[in-house]
C-alpha cells in the first residue's frame, strides 16, 4: 500500500492542511508544538477511527476530546492511497459521539463510492488491530511499547506457517545455498569464478610490466620533444619575419592601388565638370537645393497621379446625359449634405410610419365592430366621469328600492294591526279585569278570618286588578290615534323615496337615450 495524499479539514491544531507524499522517505521537520504527533494520529484515525469518548478519563487518554478542533468546524478529513493497482480515498468525520461518525470510501478511478472495504479498513488492509498498529507501524513520541499483543503474535505465527520453515529447515536451506555458491566459485578445469579472477589478476600484472617499460621510454621521448619544441620556436620566429614582409608588401600594394584610384577620380571629376557646365549656364549659378529637387519630384509624382485620376473620372456619353439632366433638376443649386441627410431621415421615418400604419390596420371583423360602435356613439362618446356616475347610480337605486319595499312592508303590517284593533273595538269586548279584581278582593275579605296575611294579599291584588281595568279602558282609543300618525309618517317617507327613485330613473333613461338604448327600469335592479 502507498499513501499518496492526505487532507485535514480540522484535527487538533491542524486546519485545512494538505500533504502530498513522494516515493522516497517523507519527513516533516518542524518545531515542537507544530502538530507532527497530531498529523500521525490523524493518519491512524483515518484507518482505525477513534474510540468513544469516556469523560471520566483524563484528556491525554481521550483522543476524541484531545483532538477535537480548537477552532471549531468539521472534525476530520481524508487520505488518498494506492492498493492493488487501485486508488482509494477514505474520508472520515468525527462527532462528539462515535455513533455519529461518518465513513465513506471512494474509488478515485471512477469517482464512485466503493464497497471494497468497510469502516474497519485498517484491520482489513494491515491484518492488525489498532493496538497492534500502534505498537508496530505507528511509533508515538511519548513512549515506545515493544510488548507484543495477540494480534502481533497471530501475525508472526501466520508468517512462520506461510513460509513453512523452522530453524532446522532454515539452516539446511542456508547450507544448500552456500554449497551452490561454492560450486560457482570453484570448478574443475579452472572454470570457477575464483580461477577467472586469478587469470584476470595475472593479465593485469603483465599489463603493468608493459606500462612500466613504456614509462622508461617516456624520458627519451621527452628529450626528443624538447629539441622539437626548440626547432618549433625558431621556425615560428622566421614565420613572423616573413609575415612582416608580407604585411609591408601588402601596404605598398594598397598605396599603389589608392594612387591609381585617385588618378581615375581626377579624370572623372574633369569629365563631370564638363558635363556640369551646361546645367550651370541653365540655372545661371543659382542651383536648386536638394530639398527643392525632392519637392519637385513629389509635385511631379502628384501631378502624374492626378492626371491618372482625371483620366479615370472622364464621363461616358450616358453619364454626360445624366449629368445634364441633374443640372436641369438642380437649377437652384445642389443641396447640402445636411439637407440630403434630413431628407433621408424623413423618408426613413415616413417608411417606418407606413409600416406601423399597415401593421395597425383593422381586420374585417374589427372594421365591422368599429362601424357598429361609430353608429352607437353617433351623438358622442360619454366621458369616464359620466360613466362612473351612472355606474354608482345602480347600487343607489337598489338601495332605495330595498328601503321602499321595507317601509311598505312595515306600513302593511301596521295597517293590519290597526284593522285588527278596529275590529276588536267594534266587537266591544268585556273588560275582564274588573270582575276578576272584585272576586279576588271578596276572597281576601273572606280569608281575613281564616289566615290574615293571605287575606290582606288577596285584597291588595284585587285593588290592583280593579285599577288596571280602568287604565285599559282609557288607553284603547288613544292607541288607534297613534297608529294613524305612524302610518302617515311611513307613507310620506315612502312617497319621498319613490319620487327620488323616479327622478334617478328619468336621469338614467335620458343618458341612455343618447345612445338609442331602451331598457326596462326593472332591469336596473338586482
**Average pLDDT, all residues:** 77
Ranges where pLDDT stays below 50 over 5 or more residues in a row are none
Query: What Rg do the Cα atoms give?
Result: 69 Å
Q: Assign an overall shape.
A: flat
| Count of individual beta strands | 6
Helix/strand-derived category reads alpha+beta
Distance from N terminus to C terminus (CA atoms, Å) equals 92 Å
Strand content: 5-15%
Strand order of the largest sheet: 2-1-3-4-5-6
Order of helices and strands: EEHHEEEEHHHHHHHHHHHH
* Structure annotation, total helices: 14
Instruction: Please give the largest β-sheet.
Output: 6 strands, antiparallel
Determine the fraction of residues in helical runs and give it as a percent range. 55-70%
What would you say this structure looks like, in words?
The protein has 14 helices and six strands. With 526 residues, the chain is α+β, with helices and mostly antiparallel strands. The protein has a six-stranded antiparallel β-sheet with strand order 2-1-3-4-5-6, covered by helices on one side. Strand 1 (2-11) and strand 2 form a beta hairpin.
Amino acid at each position: 500500500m502507498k499513501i499518496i495524499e492526505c487532507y485535514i479539514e480540522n484535527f487538533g491544531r491542524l486546519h485545512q492542511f494538505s500533504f502530498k507524499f513522494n516515493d522516497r522517505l517523507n519527513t516533516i521537520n518542524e518545531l515542537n508544538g507544530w502538530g507532527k504527533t497530531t498529523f500521525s494520529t490523524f493518519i491512524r484515525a483515518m484507518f482505525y477511527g477513534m474510540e468513544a469518548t469516556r469523560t471520566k478519563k483524563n484528556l491525554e487518554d481521550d483522543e476524541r476530546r484531545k483532538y477535537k478542533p480548537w477552532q471549531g468546524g468539521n472534525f476530520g478529513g481524508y487520505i488518498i492511497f494506492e492498493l492493488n493497482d487501485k486508488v482509494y480515498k477514505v474520508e472520515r468525520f468525527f462527532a462528539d459521539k462515535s455513533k455519529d461518525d461518518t465513513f465513506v470510501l471512494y474509488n478515485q478511478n471512477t469517482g464512485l463510492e466503493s464497497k471494497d472495504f468497510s469502516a474497519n479498513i485498517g484491520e482489513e488492509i494491515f491484518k492488525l488491530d489498532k493496538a497492534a498498529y500502534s505498537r508496530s507501524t505507528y511509533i508515538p513520541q511519548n513512549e515506545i511499547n515493544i510488548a507484543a499483543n495477540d494480534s502481533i503474535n497471530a501475525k508472526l505465527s501466520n508468517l512462520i506457517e506461510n513460509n513453512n520453515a523452522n530453524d532446522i529447515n532454515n539452516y539446511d536451506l542456508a547450507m544448500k545455498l552456500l554449497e551452490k555458491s561454492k560450486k560457482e566459485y570453484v570448478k574443475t578445469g579452472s572454470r570457477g569464478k575464483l580461477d577467472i579472477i586469478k587469470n584476470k589478476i595475472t593479465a593485469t600484472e603483465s599489463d603493468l610490466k608493459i606500462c612500466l617499460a613504456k614509462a622508461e621510454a617516456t624520458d627519451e621521448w621527452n628529450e626528443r620533444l624538447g629539441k622539437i619544441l626548440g626547432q618549433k620556436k625558431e621556425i615560428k620566429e622566421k614565420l613572423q619575419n616573413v609575415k612582416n614582409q608580407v604585411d609591408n608588401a601588402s601596404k605598398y600594394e594598397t598605396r599603389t592601388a589608392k594612387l591609381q584610384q585617385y588618378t581615375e577620380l581626377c579624370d572623372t571629376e574633369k569629365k563631370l565638370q564638363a558635363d556640369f557646365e551646361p546645367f550651370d549656364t541653365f540655372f545661371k549659378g543659382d542651383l536648386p537645393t536638394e530639398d527643392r529637387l525632392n519637392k519637385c519630384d513629389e509635385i511631379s509624382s502628384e501631378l502624374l497621379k492626378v492626371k491618372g485620376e482625371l483620366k479615370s473620372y472622364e464621363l461616358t456619353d450616358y453619364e454626360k446625359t445624366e449629368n445634364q439632366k441633374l443640372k436641369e433638376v438642380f437649377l437652384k443649386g445642389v443641396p447640402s449634405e445636411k439637407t440630403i441627410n434630413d431628407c433621408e431621415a424623413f423618408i426613413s421615418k415616413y417608411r417606418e410610419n407606413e409600416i406601423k400604419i399597415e401593421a395597425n390596420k383593422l381586420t374585417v371583423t374589427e372594421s365591422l365592430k368599429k362601424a357598429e360602435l361609430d353608429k352607437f356613439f353617433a351623438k358622442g362618446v360619454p366621458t369616464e366621469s359620466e360613466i362612473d356616475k351612472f355606474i354608482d347610480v345602480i347600487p343607489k337605486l337598489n338601495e332605495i328600492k330595498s328601503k321602499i319595499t321595507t317601509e311598505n312592508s312595515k306600513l302593511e303590517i301596521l295597517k293590519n294591526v290597526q284593522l285588527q284593533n278596529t275590529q276588536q273595538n267594534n266587537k266591544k269586548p268585556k273588560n275582564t279585569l274588573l270582575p276578576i279584581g272584585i272576586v279576588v278582593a271578596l276572597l281576601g275579605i273572606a280569608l281575613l278570618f281564616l289566615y290574615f296575611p293571605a287575606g290582606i294579599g288577596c285584597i291588595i291584588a284585587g285593588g290592583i286588578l280593579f285599577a288596571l281595568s280602568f287604565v285599559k279602558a282609557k288607553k284603547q282609543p288613544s292607541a288607534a290615534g297613534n297608529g294613524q300618525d305612524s302610518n302617515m309618517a311611513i307613507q310620506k317617507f315612502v312617497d319621498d323615496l319613490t319620487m327620488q327613485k323616479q327622478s334617478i330613473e328619468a336621469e338614467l333613461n335620458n343618458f341612455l337615450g343618447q345612445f338609442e338604448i331602451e331598457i326596462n327600469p326593472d332591469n336596473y335592479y338586482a
